[in-house]
Amino acid sequence: MKIANLLMESRINMDLQSRTKDEAVGEMLDMIRDAGFEFDYGRVQASIREREEVENTSYGRGFAFPHARTDAVNELYIVIGVSKQGLEEKTVDGVPVHVVCLLLTPSTIAKLYLQTLSGLANFARQDGILEKIKALDSTSDLIKLLSDSNIMIDKELMVKDVMRHGVARVTPDDTLKDVANQMFRHRLSALAVVDNNFRLVGVINDRDLIKAGLPDYKTLISNLNYSMDVEPFEELLKKEDKIKVSQLYRDDYEVTTPDTRIVEVAAIMIFKDIRRVFVVDNELLVGVLLRKDIVSMIIRG
Question: Band of the pLDDT at 173, cuts 50, 70, 90?
């Protein structure tokens, strides 16, 4: 089913007057209220604000996706608002939010909710889509634009619905310092290692970096009184610009595809006790599925 089939013209506002995302959410909730739908709007707005406190849903490219799973509603609501002037919100890429996609759903239909959120996010990633939306005048034109994008909702929850698209990565020629900087910048414990064609060749994690500083760690564990001639981490700092990823990375990693069922990958993660599975398409790295994302997106919502 096309995601456009879930949209209703009465739940699209092509000229939001709000100046902040919180005001925009209130303006969009009023659209539902004005249409005669009854539910606890205060409780719904509180759930949306709680979700925003966990993670800002202004994801960049001029789009925001405020959402909530709450039993204050008994069906899926998709409300889209377009701000011609842009909202006064801090964004990750500095692009003002112009399109707000509000999703409300009861906890009983998590699959459709996640797939809809994923589909709208994929729509937002299309090149030039923000300018196309800002140039539209009518709600029917927006629905047609979404329909022409051919974004579909599958029968089952797939890896592509939950995976992270922006994968932090390094190459074998990068240095230990490059790895440490990337890990710090993205708050990650591991990075994908790719070749010049973005083909996945390995993985490097924080444990590998520490091992580079403690090559004799087994001796140290067996004899805690073992005296080292030099401070190992100090020596590591001296060589951080010289040690290459090619000297440290490993090729023992798990991969999957965007169209694999999420339950299959989750089962592998539990069985093998692994935190991440890289997502490849035609041998190219296109995403990563983290165990914590399954918790935060599917279980936490």
Answer: very high
CA distance 216 to 270: 32
Contacts of 116 (CB under 8 A, 6+ apart): 3, 6, 76, 78, 103, 153
Q: Which two tokens stand for residue 139?
A: 């709600």
Q: How would CATH label the architecture of 3-153? A: 3-Layer(aba) Sandwich (3.40)
CA atoms of 224 and 256, how far apart (whole Å): 42
How far apart CA 284 and CA 279 sit, in angstroms, is: 8
* Domain residue extents for the chain: 3-153, 169-209+245-300
| Residue 69 DSSP symbol | E
The end-to-end CA distance of the chain, in Å, is: 23
Q: Is the pLDDT of residue 217 over 80?
A: no
State pTM to two decimals: 0.64
Predicted local confidence at residue 111, as pLDDT: 72
Q: Give the mean pLDDT of 39-65.
A: 89
Both structure tokens of 274? 């692994």
Q: Read off the pLDDT of residues 177-188 as tens digits, 9 standing for 90 and up.
A: 888 888 888 888
CATH of 169-209+245-300, one of 3.10.580.10, 3.40.50.300, 1.25.40.10, 2.120.10.30: 3.10.580.10
Query: Cβ(21)–Cβ(64) under 8 Å?
Result: yes
